[in-house]
Amino acid sequence: MDTRIAVAGGTGLVGTLVVEEVRRAGATPVVVARSRGTDLTTGSGLAEALDGVDAVVDASNVDTLGAKRSIAFFEAATGHLLAAGAAAGVRHHVALSIVGCDRVDLPYYLGKRRQEELVAAGPVPWSVLRATQFHEFAGQLVERSPRPFALAPRMRTQPVAAREVATALVAAALGEPAGQLPDLGGPRVEDMGRMVRDVVRARGTRRLVVPVPMVGRAGRQVGEGGLLPGPGATLGSMTFADWLERV
Ligand SMILES: NC(=O)c1ccc[n+]([C@@H]2O[C@H](COP(=O)([O-])OP(=O)(O)OC[C@H]3O[C@@H](n4cnc5c(N)ncnc54)[C@H](OP(=O)(O)O)[C@@H]3O)[C@@H](O)[C@H]2O)c1
């Protein structure tokens, strides 16, 4: 029988790759995004989208660094996905979260914590995969920086290829609900500031790279390795340097 997997945020950075991996696994993807007629913050179009769906992978996101918008988005989106999922008989909800979001007090992470809480207490059997920063995150930081700058946070990270995250999400969705999965990280510890500099150099973009030290409590937590994968983590094989050579 045809296995249908809904991908919330299926037009986004990692979501697009999840959709490709669903197809590669021989299942049918159902893309959930505003541009496809479904709004997670209001729930409109969700009942129709989840009709006949076996599993949901939530790779949706909100473009903010602030706590208020992050909490509001993840609370509404997760609440609507779980309620509609339960009504449609979805057997597995897989959420993508971030390694260290429970240890590092960055405002955006408060939304991810809320998302995880709702999933764990929700009506649909679940798995949560926490991944480290994607290799692609350095490029996202460049694109979000005000021209002519590229803001380069001094941040210890163990980045992973978004493709490897997508593969892991689909494997999880096709398997049994497993609760909190082992962290997923990349093969090496890197400095996000250097990654931003390398991306600017590789793309030949005319941007002035500005190193930004991370200050305050969150800065200290990141410096202490708060964003690095924990013991028992699964590690991807593609390094940032390998990835940069291929894009
Ligand atoms: N970036 C990283 O390094 C990293 C690392 C670990 C985990 N994560 C997590 O990975 C997830 C995905 O991040 P990303 O960078 O791939 O996201 P992204 O590229 O910003 O894509 C966001 C997706 O969400 C959809 N979306 C946004 N608002 C929506 C709404 N109201 N209703 C329906 N769909 C909506 C967007 O489609 P429309 O605009 O068409 O609605 C788009 O498909 C996030 O939860 C993030 O916390 C990211």
Describe the structure concisely.
The chain is of the alpha/beta class and 247 residues long. It has helices at 13-24, 46-49, 67-88, 107-121, 137-144, 162-174, 192-203, 216-223, 240-246, and strands at 4-8, 28-32, 55-58, 92-98, 126-131, 149-154, 156-157, 179-180, 184-185, 190-191, 208-213, 234-235.
Task: Write a structural description.
- Helices cover 41% and strands 20% of the residues.
- It has helices at residues 13-24, 46-49, 67-88, 107-121, 137-144, 162-174, 192-203, 216-223, 240-246, and strands spanning 4-8, 28-32, 55-58, 92-98, 126-131, 149-154, 156-157, 179-180, 184-185, 190-191, 208-213, 234-235.
- Bound molecules: NADP nicotinamide-adenine-dinucleotide phosphate (NAP).
- The site of NADP nicotinamide-adenine-dinucleotide phosphate has 26 residues, from helix 1 and strand 4.
Strand content: 15-25%
Helix proportion of residues, in percent? Answer: 40-55%
CATH class, named Alpha Beta
Strand order of the largest sheet: 2-1-3-4-5-8
Q: Which structural class do you get from the secondary structure elements?
A: alpha/beta
Q: What is Rg?
A: 18 Å
Distance between the termini: 37 Å
Helix and strand element order: EHEHEHEHEHEEHEEEHEHEH
